[in-house]
Specification:
globular; alpha/beta; about 350 residues; 16 helices; binds zinc ion; 5-stranded parallel sheet; Rossmann fold; 3 domains; Zinc Finger, Delta Prime, domain 3
């Protein structure tokens, strides 16, 4: 998980930081959707696992804790995040359901996800410090899962903090809410939101912000840089479907010069999730029309090769914010797919 915070979160991060020396068992962060509250929760989690956080609580980004956190391999953090929000935040959903008929992403937290916590808590924290569980969305937890989460909140394992995030505080179970310290994330002022959108290079920021009801991340998500034409998408998928047969010439002709890394990275991540899902015996969720190609690739490739490619997709998603040569970068990812499969 990349560590990301936004300029309007100074006060929020300070309130969180003020808790660090006497952590409650549970914190419930709430605010409207589209202002980065989940990201703030993750940044706070990272700062708790950082061994040299700054006086304002910001994680240093350099220590072992920060590096493990950024690589999604920190042993003392668990994400209980719905499949839908995993996709929205570029995270891998660890528990694809083996229901072949299902065509939409699950918005709720499932019992299997909270059940995993039992095993996690039966072990000691690896790095000897605090353990963190991030739960999102706290307002969409299936009842059995909520019961098991509540039990953990009532009898919390030692040195463990639950950070819950909700976009709809009114829908959070009262029993869960009453076990948590409530912290409100405020939406930025219109000026703050506009200033930030401009630094992100969004055209027509005023109108987009209005359409997104003043929520800057929702406005950014509508940016055409994140969209791709059907034709562009079809061309990229055709190269991925070719697998090890794809040539440099295929990659070059598939990538239009105005294609953005952000849009391509979205397709690549979804392809990667489908590949992992098919490999685990489930069906393709995003690209069911390409299931045969995905299955062939999943059977032929080594898991090492697949994970290598998933990692390079993750690196590209990070690069999306400071684009140099988008076309060359997208072509390189397409070609590395063929290479990783061949391993
Ligand atoms: Zn650090």
């Amino acid at each position: 998980m990349d560590i990301k915070t936004y300029p309007w979160q100074t006060e929020l991060l300070a309130s969180l930081n003020a808790l660090r020396n006497r952590l409650p068992n549970g914190i419930l962060l709430y605010g409207p959707r589209g202002i980065g509250t989940f990201e703030a929760a993750c940044a706070f989690a990272a700062s708790l696992l950082c061994t040299s956080a700054g006086p304002d609580g910001r994680p240093c980004g350099q220590c072992k804790g920060c590096r493990l956190f950024a690589a999604d391999t920190h042993p003392d953090v668990r994400y209980i995040v719905s499949e839908f929000e995993c996709a929205a935040h570029g995270m891998e959903f660890a528990m694809p359901e083996t229901n072949a008929e299902k065509k939409t992403l699950t918005r709720e937290i499932l019992i299997g996800q909270t059940r995993e916590l039992g095993e996690y808590f039966s072990l000691k924290s690896n790095e000897g410090g605090v353990r963190v569980v991030i739960v999102y969305p706290a307002d969409k937890i299936r009842s059995e899962a909520a019961a098991s989460l509540l039990k953990n909140l009532e009898e919390p394992p030692e040195n463990t903090i639950f950070i819950l995030v909700s976009d709809e505080i009114d829908r959070v179970l009262a029993t869960i809410r009453s076990r948590c310290r409530l912290i409100r994330a405020k939406a930025p002022s219109r000026e703050e939101a506009l200033a930030w959108l401009k630094t992100q290079g969004v055209d027509n920021a005023e109108q987009k912000l209005t359409e997104a009801a003043g929520m800057p991340l929702s406005a950014l998500a509508q940016d055409p840089r994140y969209a791709m034409s059907e034709e562009g998408k079809r061309k990229i998928l055709a190269v991925l479907a070719k697998g090890t047969q794809a040539t440099p010439a295929d990659a070059i002709s598939a990538v239009d010069k105005d294609m953005t890394i952000a849009a391509a990275a979205l397709i690549f991540s979804r392809w990667a999730w489908d590949l992992a899902s098919v490999r685990a015996g489930s069906s393709a969720r995003y690209f069911p029309d390409y299931e045969d190609s995905l299955r062939q690739a999943a059977q032929a490739a080594s898991s090492e090769g697949i994970y290598q490619w998933i990692n390079s997709v993750r690196d590209v998603r990070r690069a999306a914010e400071h684009t140099l040569n988008a076309k060359a970068i997208i072509e390189a990812v397409l070609l590395s797919y063929a290479r990783c499969l061949a391993k």
